[in-house]
Amino acid sequence: MQSPEMAGPEGPAPEIRFEDGGGSPVPLSSLWKQGPLALVFMRHLG
Amino acid sequence: MAQLRRAWPLFQDKKIRVVAVSPAEGAAAEAVCGMLGSPFICLGDPAGKAYDAFGLVQAEVSQLINFRTFSRGLWAMLRGHRHGQTIGDRSRLPGAFIIDGEGTIRWGHRGRDAADHPTAQDLLNAWDGIQRA
């Protein structure tokens, strides 16, 4: 397997919002303020 | 997603929360995660703004269909995984990032093609490396 490209620190996380199951916005900052997180972007659902 | 689910206890041991983002409505993301029994947070990004902000672009055809994506797909099928109905922007490339409690991106990986995503172990190793630094 090709090993993933490792990246060093990239600076501050962008100010973005996701959408939860009820359609409400979830700021990224509200997630990392609770502690470290692994943010995994899936290619698609299904 | 299955390997993240299997590795969930290891993430818990390291006090890392896993947030899975899909290029779909939040309701669809949550529904699929619930169906698969995923213990982590599942959120949607239907407009693709978060994907854009993290540099995860829409793939070229050659990044969607090539030897690696085909062989990975075949291997997954042989292990019993089945591709369900696709929901969301199927052209988005995958990626993963570790963000610390101060809001700094400490590690990242941007998929070079549709099959190029780090394993759960890659994420755990990256976190260990951050802790040692």
Give the SSE layout:
The complex is a heterodimer of chains A (46) and B (133).
Chain A: E1 11-12, E2 17-19, E3 25-27, H1 28-32, E4 37-41
Antiparallel strand pairs in A: 2-3
Chain B: H1 2-6, H2 8-13, E1 17-22, H3 26-35, E2 41-44, H4 49-53, H5 61-64, H6 67-78, E3 95-99, E4 104-110, H7 120-132
Explain what you see.
The complex is a heterodimer of chains A (46) and B (133). With 46 residues, chain A is mainly beta. In chain A, 11% of the residues lie in helices and 28% in strands. The longest helix of chain A has 5 residues, at 28-32. Chain A is globular. With 133 residues, chain B is α+β, with helices and mostly antiparallel strands. Helices cover 41% and strands 17% of the residues of chain B. In chain B, the strands form two sheets. A two-stranded parallel sheet of chain B has the order 1-2. In chain B, strands 3-4 form a two-stranded antiparallel sheet. The model of chain B has no long low-confidence stretch (mean pLDDT 84). Classes of the chains: A mainly beta (46), B alpha+beta (133). Chains A and B meet through strand 1, strand 2, helix 1 and strand 4 of A and strand 1, helix 3, strand 2, helix 4 and strand 3 of B.
